[in-house]
Amino acid sequence: MDVAWLVVALAGAGLVAGLLAGLFGIGGGAILVPVFYQVFGLIGIDEAIRMHLSVGTSLAIIVPTSIRSFLSHKAKGAVDMELLRTYIIAVPTGVLLATLVFASISSEGLRIVFAAIAVLVGIRLVVNRSNWQLGDELPKGIKRFGVGALIGFLSTLMGIGGGVLNNTFMTLFNRPIHQAVATSSGVGVLISVPGFVGSIWAGWGAEGLPFLSTGYVNWLAVALIIPVTLLVAPVGVKIAHKLEKRQLEIGFGIFMFIVAGRFILSVLQG
């Protein structure tokens, strides 16, 4: 594999991911994983490990960004620390279970999981209604533990920081979106740190990994993507401020449908 082409392709991925992250206001794996999947395909990464590598590398990138985001939100008092404390065991439990599945699940299985969640998220964004609520108070006890574990489990298999799922959970129970976003930054830490370590373990010794990879984490991608996305994201933000909130919701919903369609098509084509 030509390392120069890998660098060029990953830099291009950073440009796309940064622009979309700034435009849609979400910078995690919901954007990075499908972009990585395309780029790793262009440079000839085997289909059998391409999705695993995309998920693991995405989780590695989310580690520093989620920690920085969480500390910033916490300093402003926007994080629901009570909810986050109840997640401390629940979310990593889900991540641990997902890591065990991640080590054995096929590439097709990972793509189906991502596509299914992407469709559900897309539907909620495109057909969103302000009166879509399940209650006024968040569930407690074993129910909350179960939700936290599920968020950790699905987010790890998707390579995302949990923001999409936790935001949905909190807003469905009448929590302000700003509090949901702030709290989700802490959820991202609980998911990405053990998920990143698990990705290295799950892919240890795997064949066909690209240059500078440890397990299912490609360090070249990590080193290139973070600065490039930070550089380009403000451009997407400027575009976003020229659009209405509803337009952004529909735009991101359509993006999720396109990603889901791409993954489903790749599975059907074998």
Automatic annotation (TrEMBL):
<keyword id="KW-1003">Cell membrane</keyword>
<comment type="similarity">
    <text>Belongs to the 4-toluene sulfonate uptake permease (TSUP) (TC 2.A.102) family.</text>
</comment>
<dbReference type="InterPro" id="IPR002781">
    <property type="entry name" value="TM_pro_TauE-like"/>
</dbReference>
<feature type="transmembrane region" description="Helical">
    <location>
        <begin position="6"/>
        <end position="37"/>
    </location>
</feature>
<feature type="transmembrane region" description="Helical">
    <location>
        <begin position="49"/>
        <end position="71"/>
    </location>
</feature>
<keyword id="KW-0812">Transmembrane</keyword>
<feature type="transmembrane region" description="Helical">
    <location>
        <begin position="147"/>
        <end position="169"/>
    </location>
</feature>
<feature type="transmembrane region" description="Helical">
    <location>
        <begin position="83"/>
        <end position="103"/>
    </location>
</feature>
<dbReference type="Pfam" id="PF01925">
    <property type="entry name" value="TauE"/>
</dbReference>
<dbReference type="GO" id="GO:0005886">
    <property type="term" value="C:plasma membrane"/>
</dbReference>
<feature type="transmembrane region" description="Helical">
    <location>
        <begin position="110"/>
        <end position="127"/>
    </location>
</feature>
<keyword id="KW-0472">Membrane</keyword>
<keyword id="KW-1133">Transmembrane helix</keyword>
<feature type="transmembrane region" description="Helical">
    <location>
        <begin position="248"/>
        <end position="268"/>
    </location>
</feature>
<feature type="transmembrane region" description="Helical">
    <location>
        <begin position="216"/>
        <end position="236"/>
    </location>
</feature>
<protein>
    <recommendedName>
        <fullName>Probable membrane transporter protein</fullName>
    </recommendedName>
</protein>
<feature type="transmembrane region" description="Helical">
    <location>
        <begin position="181"/>
        <end position="204"/>
    </location>
</feature>
